[in-house]
């Protein structure tokens, strides 16, 4: 159902990439998603396999092992990973897409050359640490401090809900090096083995296969050479990073919604009630139509945004709109899919059951829905 993309935007190269991403996730993730979910993690070897398949490199500089790409390739990558059927695996496997872009955008040449090749080869794991126990989306008020002492920074504070936080080798950390507000925020790249760094694993409603941590910094010493950009200039870097993350979340949500429609449609064609297929009942057909309609609208928003980004625009408000719209589409489709599968949709090991548990984090991560609406209102001068 609804497999064909908008041909005005997608070239043969895009379609080859789409097929390769889907093939990887159907082969390397889908058969193991249940076991990895129950185990609470996936093998580290999967990073190397993803790198060999060319999935970790898109959007990063060629000089460090990356592959330049347009925004449509990014949308495809995050949509098609949904066919693995596990948001937990995908979020962990691609945590570098939020942890490493600040390094690529603002790190020194020495820092980029030292860190990025290993990340993009799947040899090391990158994470981003912004949220704190005392606050999340209000980045300008973060409390974790970094004090310069000679050729090191001494970091104190804690970060919460950090994806890949338990096993990340490199953690891009938002810290306060100056006074109050956005102007006092900087970015430091903290090695996973830095003295004074502690990690505690968190248990979640969904995304079981991704490790999520609370990270503590107790007089944690980090080389000054690991400063990303300039002191006090971390906030603008983070805002650009959030913009990319929100588009990725919107594309991923659209992909998971498509998977929900696919599984619900398959079930409706096979399951029989009262002497007929479920799909022969008007109430079920209408549910599938409503799901398909929302997915089509979400895809249209994503294609429009990708085109505008590639034309040099910065549609900040519209990306926030797409993030909200897409995650609501995913929520609706996951709910309808569970309803159509009935009792089977409530069973562990069913793909739509897992996705139903995972949808809520996507409505919160990258900026909660309510925060997105306030950002949109400001941009629209409401």
Could you characterize the architecture of this molecule?
This protein folds into 3 domains: 12-120, Acyl-CoA dehydrogenase/oxidase, N-terminal domain (Butyryl-Coa Dehydrogenase, subunit A, domain 1); 126-232, Butyryl-CoA Dehydrogenase, subunit A, domain 2, CATH 2.40.110; 236-379, Butyryl-CoA Dehydrogenase, subunit A, domain 3 (Up-down Bundle). The strands form 3 sheets. Strands 1-4-5-8 form a 4-stranded mixed sheet. The chain has a 4-stranded antiparallel sheet with strand order 2-3-7-6, with no helix packed on it. Strand 9 and strand 10 (276-277) form a beta hairpin. The chain has helices at residues 12-28, 33-39, 45-52, 71-80, 87-93, 96-99, 101-106, 109-120, 234-270, 282-310, 316-341, 351-364, 369-379; strands spanning 126-129, 145-149, 152-163, 170-176, 185-191, 197-201, 212-223, 227-228, 272-273, 276-277. The protein has 13 helices and 10 strands. The protein is globular, with a radius of gyration of 21 Å. The protein starts with 11 loop residues before the first helix and ends with a helix. The model has no long low-confidence stretch (mean pLDDT 95). The longest helix has 37 residues, at 234-270. With 382 residues, it is an alpha+beta fold.
